[in-house]
Amino acid sequence: MITFTLAQLPFQVEPRVRGFPGKRHGLKPSASIEPMYRLNNTFIPSHYDVEVRVILDNDGSVGPQFTAPGKVKIIGVNQERTSRIVLHANALTISSDSITVALKATGQRIVVSRVSEEDERDFYIIELGSEINAGDELEIHMEHVAQIMSSDGNGLFYREYLTETGEVRRIGVTQFAAVEARRMFPCFDEETNQSGGMVVYGPTYILFFPGEDPEVQRTLVTLVVCHELAHQYFGNLVTLKWWNEVYLNEGLATYTQYLGMEAVSPDLMGVEYAIIDAVQLSMVVDASENTHPLSSNVTTPQEISAMFTDISYEKGASVMRMVEGFLTYETLRKALQSYLKRMAFQGAKQEDLFDALQEAAVSDDRLPPGLNMHDIMSSWTMQTGFPVVNVQIANETVVRLSQDRFKNNGAPELEGSWFVPITIVTQDKPNLENNIPQVWLHADGASAMVQHDLSKWIMINQNATEYVTFEAVLNLTRYFSQETHFTVWKTFFYHFTYIYTFFSSHPGYNDLRSYLQPRIEAALAAVGVEESDSHTGANAILRAELLDWACSLWSPLCFEYAAELFDQWQANPDNSPVASVDARATLECAMVASSGKKAFDFVFAKYQEAGDALLREQLLSSLSCTIELLSIHELLNKTLNSTSGIKPDDAASVLVKVSSNAVGRTVILDFLSDHFEDVINVIGSGGPQPIAQVLGTLRNYFSTQDQLDQVEAFVAAHQEVLNPINAEIDSAIKTIQGNIIWMDTTGFDIWMWFQ
Ligand SMILES: [Zn+2]
After folding, report:
1. For residue range 75-111, what is the model confidence (pLDDT) as tens digits?
2. Which of 637, 620, 717, 644 is closest to 679 using CA atoms?
3. CA of 250 relative to ligand 1 center, distance in Å
4. What pLDDT is recorded for position 261?
5. Considering the entire predicted model, what is its pTM?
6. Rounded CA separation 644/638 (Å)
7. DSSP labels for 386-410?
8. 80, 223, 436, 666: most buried, per Cβ within 10 A?
9. Residue 40: pLDDT band by 50, 70, 90 thresholds?
10. Which residues pair with 28 in a beta bridge?
11. What are residue 174's DSSP bridge partners?
12. How far is the CA of 390 from the centre of ligand 1 (A)?
C-alpha cells in the first residue's frame, strides 16, 4: 500500500487563519452584555495622537531592545459625573507621573490622585482628585513602554526577514483585532478595528510561485487576499459595536471572499467552492455539540478570541449566501451598500444589518406580508443549529412541510425552529427564475401546507442538501464514474476519507477498493491522467486528488502512468520527473510503488546525493511508498545503521512514514519490538517521542481487535521506556477502541453494502 496520510487524502489544508470550535469557553446566547469586562461608555474618545518609538535593534541610547516607548494624547467627552477614568492597558509599563488630565476648553488641570491596574480585565484606572461632569471634554496625556513580542503575532510584534544579501532584518507589525491595541498603548479598546487601509499577510498567505506552488496554494492565497480586502469594508469601514457578533466582520468577509475569488480567478470556481468550504463545513460543526449561536454573549478577552470559529466565519457566510438566495444578489448588494454607508466609521450590531436588509427587501418587494428580516435573521443568528425540512404527503392534494433541528448524533431532535425559505418546482412549472421562495416555514414550528396536484411531480428546495441515510448516500455514488465535477468529488473525498482510513487495514478493504477503483478511474480518465493545459485551477486540484486516490488504491491507471514517468526519469536522471507540482508528490510516491526495487534503489541514491533537507524529506516520503515487504524491511533496517546511508536525523521520520504505509503497518510494531534498544539508541536522545508519533499514525488506521492487541502487547513489553508517552498511548488506544466500535456498527453496514 502506498503511504497516503490523512493530510493528503481529504480536503486540502484548511486555508484560513482562525480559531477552532474546540477553543470555545461555554458561550451562551446573547441576552444582555455582561458589563463587568466593559468600559460602559462612560468616556467617548474622539481623537488620539499616538507616538511610538519601535526599538528592534540593539541601540542602548534610546531604550532596551524589543521595547516601544510612547506617548498618547486622548481627547474625548466624559458621559457621567464621576471621579475616575477607566481605560485599557495590557502588559504596558505606564509612568504614573506622566499622566495629566485637563479640561480641553480651558486647559484647567484635574489632579490625578491615584492610579491602579486590574490585570484580569486589562483595566487601567485613573482616580481624580475632584469630580468631572457629564459633557466635559477632556484631554488625557500618558507616557508608557510596550513590549514587542515575536511569538504570538498580537499587539505590536516583530518578524525577521532576509535581505537579498542574506542579512537578517526585523520589521515591526501590529495586529489590533480583537482586543490587542491595548498592548501597544493605553486606550479605550472597544469597538476596535482592524488596521484601516492596511493589510498584513504572513508569507504563506500572499506568495504564490506559478509552476513551483500547487493550485491549492493559489486557492489559499486568493481566498485570504480577498477575505482581507473585504475587511476593508466589514471590519474597518464598519467596525463591531461589540465582539458578541464577530460574524458581522468575519461571516460577511468570508461571504465576500468567494465572490472575489470568482471575479479574479474564475477557474478556481469561488462561488461553488463556497458550498464545500463554507456551507458543508459549517453544517458539520453546527450539527455537533461543539457549536454556538452566531450572536453569543461574550465578555472576557478569552471568550472574545473564542468567537473566531468556523461558526462565525463559515456559518456567517452560509447564512448570507442563503439571504442572497431568497432576496436575490441585487437586493442583498443594495442592502450591504446601505449598511456600509450608514454605519461607516461606527460600530455596528446585527440589528443595523437587519435594518438595511429589511429596507432593501421592502423596496424590492422580496418578502410576503407579515414577514420581516429581523425575525428571519434572528432565527438563524440567535440559536445554534440548522433545520431538516421534512416533506410528507398529507393527502391527494396537499404536501405538508415541517422542520426539526439536525444533529449528527442521531435522529433529529425537537428543538429549535427557523424561518426557512422554500422553493418549489412542479411538473407544470419545472424551472425557477430565481430562488425567491414561494413558501416560508415559520419559526413557531408550525408546519406549512402546499396545495398541489399530486398526480404530477413536485420538488422542494431543488438545490438544498438532502437529509438521507448512509445507504442512500452510498447508492447515490453509484453513478460517480460519470461525475467530473470539482465540488461533487471534493464532497465525496471529504466523507470517503474517513471510511477509507478505517477500512485500509481491515478485511473489508478489498470490497471498498473494488467499489471505488472503477469510479475513480473513470473520472480520472475523463479529467485526464496525463498533464494538459486544461489542468488549471479547480480542474488541476481535482485531477491531483483523483490521481491521489487512484494511486492509493493501486490503480493500474495510476501505476502505468507513474512507471512511464519513472522510465523518463531513469533515462534522464538529472531532471526530475515531468509532473506538475499539484501531482508531483503523489506521482513520485507511485513511481516507487509501481516500479519495484529498481525505483527504490534509484530514489535512495537520489536521497543520498540530496543536500537540501526539504528535498531529502520528500525523497524519503517517496521511498516509504514502496509496497514490497523486502524494501520496507530494508528501509527500516537502514535506520539502525549510521553507515547505511539514512542520516540519523531522518530515522524517526522514516518510522513514522512507514507506519502510514498499509504494508508498513503490518510489520512496524514487530520491527520496533525486535530492535527496541537499537531504535531507542538511534532516535531516543529526546525520549521515546517518535514512538508516540508512530502510534499516533497507526491509530488513524487500526480498526480491528487484533491490531489493538498488537498495540497493547507492544506497549506492555516496553512499558518502562514508554512511560513518558503514557498520555499519547492512552489516547491512541482509546481511538482504536472507538474505531473498532465504528467498524462493528456503521462500518459493518457499509462493508455489507460494498459487498
Ligand atoms: Zn477575517
Report:
1. 999 988 999 999 999 889 998 899 999 999 999 999 9
2. 637
3. 5
4. 96
5. 0.76
6. 5
7. -EEEEEEE-SSSEEEEEEEE--TTS
8. 223
9. low
10. 297
11. 156
12. 35
Residue 297's Cβ-side half-sphere holds a number of Cα atoms within 13 Å equal to 10
- Please answer whether residues 423 and 438 qualify as being in contact, where contact means their C-beta atoms are separated by less than 8 angstroms: yes
Integer Cα distance of 526 and 278 in angstroms:
28
Query: Of 199, 330, 320, 331, nearest to 271 (Cα)?
Result: 320
Verify cis geometry, omega within 30 degrees of 0, for the bond prior to 178.
yes
Place of cell 486568493: 222
d(CA 85, CA 246): 27
Residue with cell 471505488: 516
Q: From ligand 1's centre to the CA of 96, what distance in Å?
A: 37
42 Cα: distance to centroid of ligand 1 (angstroms) = 29
Q: Say which residue, 120 or 168, is predicted with more confidence.
A: 168
Q: Which domains does the chain have, with CATH numbers?
A: 31-35+207-384 (1.10.390.10), 39-189 (2.60.40.1730), 386-467 (2.60.40.1910), 628-755 (1.25.50.20)
pLDDT tens string 506-541? 889 999 999 999 999 999 999 999 988 888 889 999
The yes-or-no verdict on residue 31 having pLDDT over 80 is: no
Q: What pLDDT sits at residue 12?
A: 21
1 pLDDT band, cuts 50/70/90, is very low
So what's the pLDDT on residue 151?
Answer: 65
Q: Name the packing angle between helices 581-609 and 556-571 (round to 10°).
A: 50
The active-site residue out of 143, 180, 228, 303 is 228
pLDDT confidence of 35, banded at 50, 70, 90?
A: very low
Q: What are phi and psi of 46, to 5 degrees?
A: -120, -20
Q: Which residue has the cell 490523512?
A: 6
What is the four-CA torsion angle of 584, 588, 593, 597, rounded to 10 degrees? 170
- Residues belonging to the binding site are 227, 231, 250
- The three-point CA angle 90-95-100 to 5° equals 105
- Cβ atoms within 10 Å of 614's Cβ, excluding its own: 8
Are residues 526 and 484 in contact, defined by beta-carbon separation less than 8 angstroms? Answer: yes
Q: Is the pLDDT of residue 597 over 50?
A: yes
Describe the strand order of the beta sheet including 43-52 as a list of residue ranges: 43-52, 67-78, 137-147, 92-103, 109-110
* CB atoms near residue 5 (< 10 Å): 16
Cell, residue 531 = 498533464
Contact (Cβ atoms closer than 8 angstroms) between residue 622 and residue 657: no
Cβ count within 10 A of residue 337: 13
> What's the pLDDT band for 341 if we cut at 50, 70, 90?
very high
Q: Quick one: which of 52, 74, 65 has its CA closest to 183?
A: 52
Annotated binding residues for Zn(2+), written as ranges, equal: 227, 231, 250
Instruction: Please tell me what DSSP assigns to residue 576.
Output: -
Number of C-beta neighbours around residue 501 at 10 A:
21
Structure letter (DSSP) for residue 13? P
Question: Do strands 346-348 and 238-240 pair parallel, antiparallel, or not at all (unpaired)?
Answer: parallel
d(CA 752, CA 755): 5
Q: Residue 250: which of 204, 198, 319, 155 has the closest Cα? A: 319
pLDDT digits (tens, 9 = 90+) for 631-674: 999 999 999 887 888 888 888 899 999 999 989 999 999 999 99
Check if 228 is active-site: yes
One-letter amino acid of 309 = T
DSSP assigned state of 600? H
Q: Calculate how far, in angstroms, residue 247's C-alpha sits from the geometric centre of ligand 1.
A: 9
Ligand 1 centroid vs 177 CA: distance in angstroms? 10
Give yes or no for a contact between 246 and 568, defined as CB atoms under 8 angstroms apart.
no
Query: What 3-state DSSP class applies to 560?
Result: helix
* Residue 15 alpha carbon to ligand 1 centre in Å: 12
For 292-328, write each residue's pLDDT tens digit: 999 988 877 778 878 888 999 999 999 999 999 999 9
- The answer to whether 646 and 683 have CB atoms below 8 angstroms apart is no
Tell me the CA–centroid distance for residue 194 and ligand 1, in Å. Answer: 9
| pLDDT attached to residue 319 | 97
Nearest to 679 by CA among 707, 651, 653, 658: 651
